[in-house]
Design brief:
Blueprint: E1 17-21, E2 26-31, E3 75-79, E4 85-89, H1 95-102, E5 120-126, E6 129-135, H2 150-154, E7 162-168, H3 174-188, E8 197-202, H4 209-220, E9 226-229, H5 238-263, E10 268-270, E11 276-278, E12 291-295, E13 298-301, H6 304-310, H7 318-330, H8 333-339, E14 347-350, E15 353-356
Parallel strand pairs: 4-6, 4-7, 7-8, 8-9, 13-14
Antiparallel strand pairs: 1-2, 1-3, 5-6, 10-11, 12-13, 14-15
Length: 358
């Protein structure tokens, strides 16, 4: 007889979803492309019936296999937005105003901190090209450890190529605000602190901010690729900022292409002609252990093929017992037990059965 196959269960998730094994804490998949599919849990293989073990010397096989159970996993799904440019900064620095000014996105804008409570995406069209910007809610000290849900927001800029760091130019200490946010990036993930960064010194429309910019500019150029003074609300200096962001983004994309090309190069090997040809090396295969010794006089058979056999064998039937022993010989289990030094009277366990070595 042939049992019915189980149907697939498929879940549709947004692009940018990471799939984690919640028990092991390891990442299984990172779905960054539209239409990408990944097998998360494998269904169990069906067991073979006794007719499959018919041979010229055994016309009435008494062996059969149980089906394997399917994989059981506890998963955690994390969404990390995909954007080219991430807008970061302290609360009320003007990040949402900047995104509103340069894209069609309409995040909530108000003159108090934490107006934005979740990341907002916007598409920027600039000089026949376009890129996606994401407005990250304001970061405060301790954000890397979860203060103000900072860790929830910071993960969304892990995928961005360029950062636009918006500074409140009308604040009491713009440089200190900048340093504090940079430190939160570093504490959350060292790689975030190495991303190309353009600083936007905001609120130029307020009197005195232009003077503050001249005083702070030199202190901000140590780590940033470029420092620009702007007014997001007054639409001042935005063309120059977008031009700088587009230039830095283009360089970052080119570097990514080069890095991918290098990482995908085959291992060179020079033949007699001097030309380089790829050397294909097969991945090492791990030999599945057949047994393990648990005590001085006790052994456990770990080979899955053997434990599957044991699942449906009635060892009270002497004929089935003989055929089962024959299968263990074919699988090399008996030879492995002998090499391990098993002696008469010792116990060996196969699946649910405990047997005495004779």
């Amino acid at each position: 007889m042939h049992g019915k196959r189980g149907s697939d269960v498929e879940f549709v998730v947004p692009v940018g979803t990471e799939v984690w094994d919640n028990t092991k804490g390891s990442r299984i998949a990172d779905l960054t492309a539209d239409g990408e599919r990944v097998l998360i849990a494998q269904g169990g293989r069906g067991g073979r019936g006794n007719s499959r073990f018919t041979s010229s010397t055994n016309q009435f096989p008494l062996l059969a296999e149980e089906g394997d159970p399917g994989q059981d996993r506890r998963l955690r799904l994390e969404l990390k937005l995909l954007a080219d440019v991430g807008i970061i900064g302290a609360p009320n620095a003007g990040k949402s105003s900047l995104l509103t000014a340069v894209s069609a996105a309409r995040p909530k804008v108000a003159d108090y901190p934490f107006t934005t409570l979740e990341p907002v995406l916007g598409v920027v069209e600039y000089e026949h090209d376009g890129f996606v910007m994401v407005d990250i809610p304001g970061l405060i000290e301790g954000a890397h450890a979860g203060a103000g849900l900072g860790d929830e927001f910071l993960r969304h800029i892990e995928r961005t190529r360029v950062l636009v760091h918006v500074i409140d130019g009308n604040g009491p200490d713009p440089v200190e605000d900048y340093i504090r946010i940079r430190e939160e990036l570093r504490l959350f993930d060292e790689e975030l602190a190495t991303k190309p960064e353009v600083v936007a010194f905001n609120k130029l429309d307020i009197p005195g901010v232009d003077d503050a910019f001249e005083l702070c500019k030199d202190d901000l150029t140590d780590t940033a690729a470029s420092v620009r003074s702007i007014s997001a609300a007054g639409r001042i200096g935005l063309d120059g900022l977008l031009h700088e962001v587009a230039e830095v983004l283009s360089s970052a994309r080119e570097q990514l292409t080069v890095d991918e090309a290098i990482s995908n190069q085959p291992i060179p090997h020079r033949g007699s002609t001097g030309s380089e040809v790829p050397v294909l090396r097969p991945a090492p295969t791990d030999r599945e252990p057949k047994i393990r010794q648990t005590e001085v006089d006790r052994y456990e058979v770990t080979l899955r093929a053997a434990t599957r056999f044991a699942g449906m064998v009635d060892l009270n039937n002497w004929g089935a017992r003989i055929q089962f022993y024959d299968q263990l010989q074919r699988l090399g289990v008996i030879a492995e037990l002998e090499r391990a030094g098993i002696r008469s009277g010792d116990t060996y366990v196969v699946g649910k059965h405990e047997l005495e070595w004779e």
